[in-house]
Design brief:
Blueprint lengths: L7 E3 L1 H6 E11 L3 H8 L3 E2 L4 E5 L2 E5 L2 E2 L16 E4 L2 H12 L3 E10 L5 E10 L2 H22 L1
Antiparallel strand pairs: 1-8, 2-7, 2-9, 3-6, 4-5, 5-7, 8-9
Pfam families: SmpB
GO molecular function: RNA binding
Subcellular location: Cytoplasm
Length: 151
C-alpha cells in the first residue's frame, strides 16, 4: 500500500502578482537527489518562471536544495529543468505566450499518488498596482466576514 504524499509547495506570490488564465499540470525531468530533496519538502518556487527554448518548455530559477545525505554526485540547486507536456498543450501555450503581456508562471509543486513530481503551471497576465490593492481589500473583507461568522 502506497502512502499518500503531503508535499505541496505553492507559489503564493503568483496569485498576487498575476491573473491566472489557463492552468496545466506538467511532469519534471529530475535527477535522483532532486526528487529526494522534493520529498523532504526542500524546494521553493519564489521568482520562478518558464520559458520556451528550441527543445521544449523549461522552468528557470526553481530552487531545489541540495540533498543532505548526497555525495559528490549532488545536484546544482538552481539549474534549468525541462517540463514534460504533450505537443498539443505546448503549441497552445506557445501561441498564448507569443501575445504581449502573457507569461508562464509555476503555481504549485507536488508529488502525485504514483510518487512522481508534478508542477502546476499557469499562463498569466501581470496585474497592475490597483488590481493588487483590490486583491488585498477582498482578502481583508473575506477575513473580516469569517471572523463575524464564527461569533
Amino acid at each position: 500500500m502506497k502512502q499518500l504524499s503531503n508535499i505541496n509547495i505553492k507559489n503564493k506570490r503568483a496569485t498576487f502578482d498575476y491573473e491566472l488564465l489557463d492552468t496545466y499540470t506538467a511532469g519534471l525531468v529530475l535527477t535522483g537527489t532532486e526528487i529526494k530533496s522534493i520529498r523532504l519538502g526542500k524546494a521553493s518556487l519564489v521568482d520562478t518562471f518558464c520559458i520556451f527554448e528550441k527543445s521544449g518548455l523549461w522552468v528557470r530559477n526553481m530552487n531545489i536544495s541540495e540533498y543532505f545525505y548526497g555525495s559528490y554526485n549532488n545536484h546544482v540547486a538552481r539549474r534549468d529543468r525541462k517540463l514534460l507536456l504533450n505537443s498539443k498543450e505546448l503549441k497552445k501555450i506557445e501561441r498564448m505566450v507569443k501575445e504581449t503581456g502573457y507569461t508562464i508562471v509555476p503555481t504549485r509543486l507536488f508529488i502525485n499518488d504514483k510518487g512522481l513530481a508534478k508542477l502546476n503551471i499557469a499562463v498569466a497576465r501581470g496585474k497592475k498596482q490597483y488590481d493588487k490593492r483590490q486583491s488585498l481589500k477582498e482578502k481583508d473583507d473575506k477575513r473580516m466576514l469569517d471572523r463575524v461568522m464564527k461569533r
